[in-house]
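Reminder to self: tokens first, then the designed residues, so the page reads top to bottom the way the pipeline ran.
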């Protein structure tokens, strides 16, 4: 049976979304093996956020949000942290970061590069996590940690932004189809 063009595009989009979620899970688990806590306790590189930003750029808000939610949910199931503090920190940081990046990407596209959007998202990820941590432990002293997290958010956001920029540029150019 020959599939019509719309159905074929829909299947192709679903497969790519699944691949992005899978890549995000792999990056999440690889990143968990990299010791960053000696620099700033609790800080991470945010490599898995590459796929969320990439989905936002390539497919739009809805698919980007889907990739983020699936990545966080599946990652927490596989790591055994579903419905724990780690899960709540991850989902809150991810959602606030994604909404902030989406707003900046769609409303201020001409003023901010993808690298700037990523740094903005990285910073808001930390803010979302600190707000959630405050609700859990009910101690405003947790916000004294924000400047240290922002110091880590800038270089990691630049790294995520660069990888996303070059990957999206390559994929949108269609150069990969020659192989």
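Designed residues (179 positions):
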């Amino acid at each position: 049976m020959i599939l019509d063009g719309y159905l074929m595009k829909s299947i192709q989009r679903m497969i790519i979304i699944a691949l992005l979620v899978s890549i995000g899970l792999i990056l999440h688990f690889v990143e968990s093996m990299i010791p960053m806590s000696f620099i700033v306790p609790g800080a991470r590189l945010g490599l898995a956020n590459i796929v969320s930003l990439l989905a936002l750029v390539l497919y739009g808000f809805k698919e980007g949000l889907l990739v983020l939610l699936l990545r966080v949910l599946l990652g927490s199931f596989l790591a055994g942290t579903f419905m724990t503090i780690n899960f709540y920190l991850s989902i809150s940081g991810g959602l606030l970061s994604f909404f902030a990046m989406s707003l900046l990407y769609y409303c201020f596209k001409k003023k901010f590069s993808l690298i700037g959007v990523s740094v903005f998202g990285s910073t808001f990820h930390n803010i979302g996590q600190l707000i959630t941590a405050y609700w859990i432990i009910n101690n405003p002293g947790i916000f004294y940690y924000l400047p240290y997290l922002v110091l880590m958010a800038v270089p990691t956001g630049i790294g995520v932004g660069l990888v996303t920029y070059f990957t999206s540029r390559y994929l949108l150019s269609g150069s990969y189809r020659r192989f």
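The helical segments are 5-32, 49-59, 61-79, 85-107, 114-137, 146-173.
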